[in-house]
From TrEMBL:
Its EC number is 5.3.1.9. It comes from Leclercia barmai. Transmembrane segments: none annotated. Keywords: Gluconeogenesis, Glycolysis. Gene3D superfamilies: Jelly Rolls. It comes from the Bacteria. Pathway: Carbohydrate degradation; glycolysis; D-glyceraldehyde 3-phosphate and glycerone phosphate from D-glucose: step 2/4. This is glucose-6-phosphate isomerase. It is an enzyme of class 5 (isomerase). It catalyses: alpha-D-glucose 6-phosphate = beta-D-fructose 6-phosphate.
Length: 187
């Protein structure tokens, strides 16, 4: 007797598009992030329905030992001189790590410890990012096209956005002709 062979979910590595999988989709719009960007006047002057990013997650079982797989599609753009970015978060269960794989576009992964130590990693097609436990993370699109990254994380990790209500220690702004300038956020 031969066992049944199923076609598992697939991802197109060049675009981050899923196939053969039930998906959960979530869109984050500019209106969802008040007081998020450093230039509130520029934020108010933009279309509140502007899509900043979409997240597609394979609808899969959850619980201890289970993993989620999803792709974030972060669109290109700026509010004032600040690049579009994801909300960013710690995990509710801080001991849980995560892995990101750069698929298309270019940008940065901002990583920050609870004590405020921050660092940036370049995200590009083929890059692999190990996000340690106890580390907040945010994607920033510094390019002219959509930045897509595949993520794998424990389903029990959860998201804690409230811990970063004051923002990350670093912000990324555009400067002279696509060069990036990284400066510490002034609180």
């Amino acid at each position: 007797m031969n066992p049944d062979v199923i076609l598992p979910p697939q991802v197109a590595w060049a675009s981050g598009v899923f196939a053969n999988a039930p998906l959960i989709r979530k869109t984050t719009r500019l209106a969802d992030l008040p007081d998020f960007f450093s230039d509130n006047n520029a934020w108010r002057g933009c279309d509140p329905q502007q899509r900043l990013y979409d997240v597609e997650t394979i609808d899969s079982p959850s619980g201890e030992g289970a993993l989620y797989v999803g792709v974030t599609h972060l669109y290109a753009g700026k509010i004032g001189d600040e690049f579009f970015m994801t909300r960013g978060h710690f995990h509710q269960r801080r001991e849980q790590g995560e892995v990101y794989f750069g698929l298309c576009g270019r940008g940065l992964l901002l990583l920050q410890t609870a004590s405020g130590e921050a660092r940036l990693e370049r995200v590009k097609p083929g890059s692999v990012h190990i996000i340690p436990s106890f580390t907040a993370h945010r994607l920033i699109n510094t390019g002219d096209e959509t930045l897509s990254a595949l993520a794998v994380w424990p389903s029990v990790a959860g998201h804690d956005y409230a811990a970063l209500a004051g923002g990350f220690a670093l912000r990324v702004f555009a400067s002279d002709h696509h060069l990036q300038e990284w400066e510490a956020r002034n609180d």
